[in-house]
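Section 5.1 Outputs to date
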Amino acid sequence: MEQLIAIIEKGQPFFNAIARNKYLKAIRDGFISVIPIIIFSSIFCLVASVPNIWGFYWPDDINNALWKCYNYSMGILAIACAATTAKHFADAQNRDLPKNNQINFISCMCAAIIGFLLLSSDTIATDAASGFNTTYLGSKGLLTAFIAAFVTGIIYKFFIKRNITVKMPEQVPPNISQTFKDIIPFSVCITVFWVFDIVFRAAFGFCFAQGVIQVFQPLFTAADGYIGLAVIYGAMSLFWFVGVHGPSIVEPAIAAALVANMTDNLAAFQAGQHASAVLTQGAQYFVVCMGGTGATLVLVFMFCFLAKSQEMRAVGKAAIVPVCFAVNEPLLFAAPIVLNPVFFVPFVFAPIANIWILKIFIDFLGMNGFMYTLPWTVPGPIGTIMGLGFQPLAFVMLALILVVDFVLYYPFFRAYDAQKCAEEAEISQEELAAKNAEKAAKLNDAFQGKADAKSVAAGAAAEAVRADAPAAVATETTTASDLNGKRVLVLCQGGGTSGLLANALAKAAKERGINLETAAEAYGNHVDMLPDFDLVVLAPQAASYLADLQKDCERVGNKCVACRGKQYIELSQNGDKSLAFVAEQLSK
């Protein structure tokens, strides 16, 4: 096992490079930006559809109003994703450009939207007017949206980097100059998409978005099989185990399938057919990652209630609430689970077992797959039941998954618990031996007529307190003065773990009367926020982005730092240490 972990660790720089790839990051960040659309639209979907399970149907006017809001949000998901992906890709491109010659991401977003519409929509002509065919404007067009965003960003960088733009005199206001500066790259983008669309339709007889779906459909089908699901989610857990954020590497490749399959499942269910897709966003959130990557929900309860080790019980109590809401970094780094050979097998294979159980229930028992999207922070059991539409089989499947996860984790948990208990017993024996030695020394000193060791020790301690008191007060005062009026931004992958440290800093600062502003956000959504903060802190799972973050921070003149696993957990649990850490970083 140690050799296997060593081999995987050797590949960590390569995995980090993949996670930092600007194309994959743009897909991930662009997709994260549109998740509010998915969640918002799904609320209307739930309200419209779930009552049907119990035989209640809304009147037609109410039903149409509910579905209208769903269709006008989820139905244009790909349009929004073309814009957000283009924005994040432009941010990445700007890191390689001079500060005074940047890509205008708003213009880039507009060009990507128009290019995507040219590639994915047909004109519907009627007697009264004409409109868009919306078939590929929603989740089915996500792959085309990514392509449109990348082509737009590449073209913009080519022209901006070489200053092939319309240049205006210095007397012209900057906002007007920027408008003319964007004319050439914008025009070239739209012309490229327009010509390509004409040629593609003439050659194949359908739009590019439909062609992309046809090309990738075999891959989506293979990914939805037992082997494909095992590779996808086994790899995600494996990367996390060695400290690389697995979803950053794996999820961009399947993001389009996750959402498209949810949409297909809902459409099939409404048509009275079997919703058979397994690889869905709901399955990943609530089955594969029940309690976070590694399906650690049952494990944190073992730590909290079954462990004999005091350390493990303490970790369990500290981590149980975050893990219930799918934020399991406190457990991963404090236990630790990451790079701990004891938990390698269940951490990698429990998610695979979970997704296979879901597939068995769908393929052989006729259960419908996930149809409704909920926020990823919804507790796994609740998200499973609601996402599957309260099907009776969903309750049975959930119970089976919890039992299987318990069986997979329990032997390894017991082994680790015994190991920790032995360590604690050794520490206790050492402490006992030290106390006995101290007692013997005191007795020896007493017989020799020497000063009482306890009194001497007490006097020395008191003197130390008196000597250190001014320094302590000075340090506290210095920390307060260093932090007053400062602003700290904490970043992680999804915005969940970052809240642990941001909240700890805010609470500690408030208790000590320090005027310190804190915020938590997902990496990728930070670029426009940077000028408003003095220090940016990267959570451990986002530490591989430090080099890129340093470039972003240099542009606005603020500071950044990445935390290690246990260090981050300790800071999030200790207000004094977190404030001292921030003060130290700001003073550098």
